[in-house]
Specification:
This protein has 358 residues and is mainly α. The protein contains 13 helices and two strands; from the N terminus they run βαααααααααααααβ. Helices cover 70% and strands 3% of the residues. It starts with a strand and ends in a 6-residue tail after the last strand.
Length: 358
């Protein structure tokens, strides 16, 4: 006897809406059980992970700060995933965008450069991420190379380039041999929205990206093109939509937004180039995109939820002595629960014998 998944003919909109909530609760129950096995109280962990960050003003600001790169990257990934193309290398595009933007910041350091520096840094970061994203797209359209492997492998190339620059040509000669660049000038630093606030203008960029994407995906021919390409590739071909141009376009958009997230994090939070400038935002954004159902508003909510796990994980490490890796494990559990919930909503389980009978 085996079980098969058969597509449901009628899918309830209510079930579609409830599925992510059920997945999130299930993930929390699984994580609570793991925490109980580790000898800690699941109730205390829930308080530390969720309630305390939501009741502290500083943590609320940090929540927006950590959600900003997640939202930017996940919005870009939604273009690829809607077209049934798998960009797994947003972490590398994030890194390359930070490198491109930081190049200008470091080359204008100590000069009288004015207000033009920061906008040009942002444009360079978008360009760097887009160009890096186009590499797996070109390899796929020209040689048929699997985009999952190439985009993923390019992550490690970008990280090695960043490490080389931080320890070599871009290292601060007065930095006591630490692998980091000089601190960016104020003209190259992304300002805060409010005085003495950690929330910077990158949060505005994320909101703009979400609004623009909502319009593009819901009300333009390009959005329909992505949906048709993902759902029915042959129908898209018959409609005259080029698979090659679609692949190049979505990878460029995805890489550009990931690159923007890179310079936003470096310029708005870190303030200099270091060997490590990411908290695995590029990989975590995959979870955010699917948790948000590839919907712009859903991605906004999902980015805040996942950012909450980052802050809660840091608190749990200090207060409950729980390993920080538990946060990454929880994010993985959350993704699996979301995918399982989607499968249960979209498909019906049917048990069948080897001969094909029910």
């Amino acid at each position: 006897m085996r079980f098969e998944l058969t597509p449901r003919t009628n899918i309830s909109p209510v079930m579609r809406a409830v599925a992510p909530v059920v997945a999130f609760i299930t993930a929390f129950l699984i994580a609570g059980f793991v925490i109980w096995l580790m000898g800690r109280s699941p109730i205390a962990a829930f308080d530390v992970y969720v309630l305390q960050p939501l009741s502290d003003p500083w943590s609320l600001q940090e929540l927006v700060v950590k959600a900003t790169p997640l939202a930017l990257i996940a919005i870009g990934l939604s273009y690829c995933f809607r077209a049934n193309l798998w960009n797994i290398g947003a972490e590398g595009q994030y890194t390359m965008g930070a490198i491109f933007g930081s190049w200008l910041a470091l080359n204008t350091h100590g000069t009288d450069a004015g207000l033009w520096v920061l906008p040009l840094m942002l444009l360079l970061s978008i360009l760097g991420g887009a160009l890096y994203g186009l590499i797996p797209a070109f390899l796929k359209t020209r040689f048929g190379v699997n985009e999952i492997l190439t985009s993923l492998m390019l992550v490690y190339v970008a990280q090695q380039i960043l490490d080389y620059l931080a320890r070599g040509p871009w290292r601060d000669p007065k930095g006591f041999n630490f692998p980091q660049s000089v601190t960016f000038d104020p003209a190259a630093t992304l300002p805060s929205i409010l005085e003495e606030s950690r929330v910077h203008y990158g949060a505005i960029f994320a909101l703009v990206a979400i609004l623009v994407t909502a319009v593009i995906l819901g009300r333009t021919l390009f959005g329909y093109r992505l949906k048709l390409t993902g759902d029915a590739p042959r129908a898209a071909q018959f409609a005259g939509f080029s698979a090659r141009s679609t692949t190049l376009a979505v990878f460029a958009i995805s890489g550009g937004l990931a690159g923007l997230a890179g310079i936003v994090e470096v310029s708005g939070q870190i303030g200099q180039i270091q060997p490590s400038i990411s908290n695995n935002y590029g990989f975590t954004a995959i979870t955010v995109a699917f948790l948000g159902r590839l919907n712009p508003v859903g991605i906004l909510i999902a980015s805040l939820v996942v950012a909450l796990t980052f802050i809660g994980g840091e608190n749990a490490q200090i207060l409950l002595k729980l390993p920080l890796d538990l946060t990454q494990a929880f994010q993985g559990i959350l993704l699996m629960c979301v995918l399982a919930a989607d499968a249960m909503v979209s498909y019906r389980i049917r048990f069948a014998t080897r001969g094909g009978g029910k």
